[in-house]
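Entry 14. Structure prediction run on the chain below.
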Amino acid sequence: MDLGIRGKRGLVCASSKGLGLGCARALAEAGVDLVINARGAEALEAAARAMREEFRVQVTPVAADITTEEGRATVLEAAGEVDILVTNAGGPPPGMWHDWEREDFIKALDANMLTPIALMKALLPGMTERGWGRVVNITSQSVKAPIAVLGLSNSARAGLTGYVAGTARQVAGKGVNINNLLPGIHATDRAESLDKGAADSQGIGIDEVRANRAASIPAGRYGTKEEFGAACAFLCSQHAGFIVGQNLLLDGGAVNATL
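Output returned:
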C-alpha cells in the first residue's frame, strides 16, 4: 500500500534501536525524510547510515537527550518544520509503590509525559498552519491495564493519554491527527532488561522467564519492532486522516478487555 507520505519530513525520538527504530525504518521505507534522535551517537549514526543506503531518503541523526530542555532545543533546531512527529523515550525503572519518592515521579513525568507534550507544543502550530500533520506517541499497554511493578510508567503515560485525548480533538479540524500506540511485550532491549530483572528476582533462568511471558500472550510470542513500525507508519499515512485521539494496542491480545 502506498501510504501517500513520500517527501514528508518526520522526527522520530529515541530511534537508534527498539520500537523507535522500527518506526523510523517504516517511515523511511514509505519515503519520509527523517531526523532521528537518541543519546548514543554511535548507534544513531549506524541507524541513519543504514536507512539512507536502503531507502534512499535523507536521514539526519541528532545525538541528544530528548528528555532535557537542552536536548529538545538541539533536536528541534535540527528538525525545523516537520510533518510527522513520533515521540518516544525509555520507560522508568520497575519497582513497587513503597519504593518511589516524589523525585522518582517527577523524573518519570519529565521523560514520559512532559517531554512529548513539549514536543507537540513546539511542532503542532506549524502543522496546523500548513494544514497537515501526524503525531504518534509511543506509550504502553499499561495505560489500558496497569502493571504493578511499572507504577511510574503507569502514572506518567496515563497523564499523557489524558492530554492527548483533549488536544487531538482541538487540532483535528486543521488536518492534524494525534494518536497513541500502546506496545505490549516486544523483543527489544527494554524487554531484555525487564526479563533479566524478573529472572534475578525469581531465581530462574531468563529463558524460562521469556517462555512464561510468551505463554501469557494469546499470540504466543513477543512482538517485533518491524510490525510495530508498520502500525506507526499507517497512523502517519494519508489513509489515517479519520483516526483521532485513539489508543491502539499492539500487545498480541494480552490485555483482556472488550473495549
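Residues 44 and 52 are 12 Å apart (CA to CA).
Filed with the rest of this week's runs.
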